[in-house]
Each structure stands twice: as structure tokens, then as C-alpha cells.
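2024-03-11 09:14:02 INFO receiving multi-entity request
2024-03-11 09:14:02 INFO entity count = two
2024-03-11 09:14:03 INFO echoing inputs for audit
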Amino acid sequence: DAGITQSPRHKVTETGTPVTLRCHQTENHRYMYWYRQDPGHGLRLIHYSYGVKDTDKGEVSDGYSVSRSKTEDFLLTLESATSSQTSVYFCAISNAGGDDEQYFGPGTRLTVT
Amino acid sequence: KNQVEQSPQSLIILEGKNCTLQCNYTVSPFSNLRWYKQDTGRGPVSLTIMTFSENTKSNGRYTATLDADTKQSSLHITASQLSDSASYICVVSARGSARQLTFGSGTQLTVLP
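2024-03-11 09:21:47 INFO inference complete, emitting structure
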């Protein structure tokens, strides 16, 4: 998985609680992404980062926030988890952004009860 | 709106047989098309990349084709193996910002002994 780790790998949480997912890379790639994958849908972009402290929204950003204080770490936070945020979350990295190849982490399965 | 449609949604074949997966896209302006393989519980991994001028690209037993005029691509798998059981995802890039990736929902391939 191209030097990308995600933690935790599995999490069950209750509606209304805050949740933070972590993505860590050892490739020194500039761009980092958070996606969610749901049955019947393609991967959908939540947020991405194009450098330390530089982030932007994707197509499904409502209810999510991100932070990137170091090149190697990209955090995804659900401020108040809802059942609709039950999903598998993937982190990806790329060196040059744009249409450059993205390398994916192993994913985090989040269940909100 | 950019879209990627894949067919079939699922496919079951016997080991040793060939199969072809289809991808139709409406993404503009087109930059490149990638096929990813996603094993159960893992992140997607790139198999091939094709740009506008390329018609065919092979990676071992995997051969991708691209018809940029009709906006169609196919992934042909030859002499299937049990390890080919996975979801195959078509991803189309548009020229522009880092957000411009459109993912298909994938074809779930099962190879039976």
C-alpha cells in the first residue's frame, strides 16, 4: 500500500460522537486525499490537501473537516457522527496532484450506530 | 456532470476463462483513464493508464483498450486465475485541479475453480 497507513482500521461509534481518522504516509508526497466508498457508488472525494495547512473541499465535504499540520499526516474529523457517515474511508496520496496517479491506503471501516 | 458507468456490475467466470469489462465515460476535458484492481478489504491498486492517443495497453494478462471517440474503454483479462477475483474500477481524469477524478462503481469479478 505504497507507504500509507490508516488508523484505526475499524471503528464503531455512536451517533453524535466525534471521530478522527488518521492517514500517515512515508512517501513525502505533496497531495493527500480522503475518499469514502459506499455500495453502488464510486469513490467520492471528501477533502484533499495540496500542502501543509492547505486543504480544499471535495464533492461530499458536508459534516467533515480535515487538518494537515505535517507533510506525512492528514486527519479526517467527523465532528458529530451520523449514521449516513457509515462507510469505508480511504486515504490516497499523489506526488503532483491533478491527474497524477493516486496511491491508496488500506481503508478504515467506520460504523455509526 | 462527469460520469463513469461500468458494466456488468458483477461477473462470475470459471478459472482459465477470459472476460471483458466495460467502461463508458462522459468526462471533459479528458486527460487519462486508469483501471484499478481492488481486492476485498484493500485499497485500489492501479493496473493500467491510458492517455488520449493510446488505443491499447497491456499489463501481463490484463489488456485495456480505449476508444476516445466513443468514450469507451474495456479491460480484458486472459486466462483468469482465482487471484483475479476482485472489484475492477475505471477512473477517468479531467485536466484541471486535483479534484478532477471520476470513479466508476466497479465490476465485481468472481473467479471460480
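2024-03-11 09:21:48 INFO post-check: The interface with chain B takes residues 1, 4, 31, 33, 40-45, 48, 50, 56, 58-59, 90, 92, 94, 97-99, 101-107 of chain A (CB under 8 Å).
2024-03-11 09:21:48 INFO post-check: Chain A has a mean pLDDT of 94.
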